[in-house]
Please model this.
Amino acid sequence: MPLSPRVPDLAALDLLLSVIELGSLGRAAQAHGISQPSASSRIRYLEKLVGTPVLERTTLGSLPTPAGALIAEWARRVVDAAEQLDAGIGTLRAERDSRLRVAASQTVAEYLFPGWLMTMRTGAPEVTIALEAGNSVEVAQAVLDGKAGIGFIESPQSFRGLQSHEVARDELLVVVAPQHKWARRGAVTLAELAATPLIQREPGSGSRTLFEKVVAHAVPGWQPNIALELSSTTAIKTSVAADVGVSVLSSLAVAADVAAGHLVVAEVAELDLSRSLRAVWPTGQRLTGPARDLYSIALKASA
Model:
């Protein structure tokens, strides 16, 4: 039920109580961080609403009228209740800001998030962070369902109900075992790659989605040729290193393996698999608390 328009706002009631407690409109104005003319204006507005004077100006200061004293008695209960409400909201905010659930695609979860977390722990050690790793579709759904306060995806697709912003750049690389015939080639043609059965992540994976989108655009009529489907990047790298097949993986995921000689990058002519890694959160909402802090850390890390 809507309040009557005769009910003054909390700021005016709180000011009235301060005037009565401090005995001066000027001292009350100073306590509230406003000018004396502004304080006078608030009191006049309050008197207009209630229809009677609430303060009597004397040479000794400001004193409540009988009506003002009665209104102040009622106002005290209202202001006390408002203070309890504020304290309760503060408790809820503190509880919210003490935990953060994050959903991230596997590439981000394994190769970027640990560094972000280290920075986050340095600046806010009291925050408990829970990470759920999955493919980009699963991450988007977790954020939409409210199970995660922020998500990080690698898929090029847009998701209804989510807004996004790039936090890092990455590139997909075609990788083979050191003994594979492509390891000794100067370059592989796109046609050869398109005709080769691949070891791929499951549907919904950002890397698979990007690769299939790019190749389908470059090779009309092409259909994905999957030799083996695995949900773990580590399992894919192990299979490729054992020369089970060829795969397309994030540069972040294979950097150490390539440096150690366990995998070899096969150059593919006329193939651009650069991509954007993005933070996602519900459309129309602002990131707050630990989610905002983590987002800022991710942006700074890639700057």
